[in-house]
Amino acid sequence: MVNNKSYNNVVNTLLRLGQYHDQISTISVGDIYDINLEKMEKFPLMHINPTSVTTGDSQLTYNFQVFVMDLVSEKSDWQTRQHQALTKLIDRENNEQEVFNQTLHICTDIISMLRHSERQSLLGVDDINEPIYFTQDQFTIEPFQERFDNLCCGYVFNIGILVQNDFQTCNIPVNTRGAGY
Questions:
Q1: Is the N end or the C end of the chain the one with fewer CB atoms within 10 Å?
Q2: What is the pTM of this model?
Q3: What is the pLDDT of residue 78?
Q4: Among the listed ranges 51-55, 82-86, 138-142, which one has the minimum average pLDDT value?
Q5: What CA–CA distance (Å, rounded) separates 7 from 61?
Q6: For 18-57, what is each residue's pLDDT tens digit?
Q7: Surface-to-core class of residue 122, CB atoms within 10 Å of its CB (0-12 exposed, 13-18 middle, 19+ buried)
């Protein structure tokens, strides 16, 4: 028997992946305009924007845009001496390059956890060959910059989360009369 996964299951799993990632401070879900940067969210921030659900023969694919962003420091003293010695940045007045670097790593971590990780399994399920949620294909991770009250930058990528679905008709909440004319 297939254990069909709901929208809530998939979104909560994505939120939990963000919650468990040590570099992500805030997670949210909804329209991208729902992010309230004026409330001074803690950064780095991962935001999940649901876009669509597609059906297959025995699966559903939940499609999302995932944004990973952080604030850019525009102070001239953001670098440590060690950091200055190890890097040759063109613009030393802000840490935008470092923010892009860090947020890209977080994006690839999220993709990796859905492709290859034991984090796909529920507690007590030790078989990595039995994923509950997974993704496939290749990804384009696109950089972005936004100026709100502060300068924010990071990456966004589209991801499809595949789950099994047996499209059972036994438990549909309808009466037993036929619908045809």
A1: C
A2: 0.80
A3: 47
A4: 82-86
A5: 10
A6: 999 999 999 999 998 877 666 667 899 999 999 999 998 8
A7: exposed
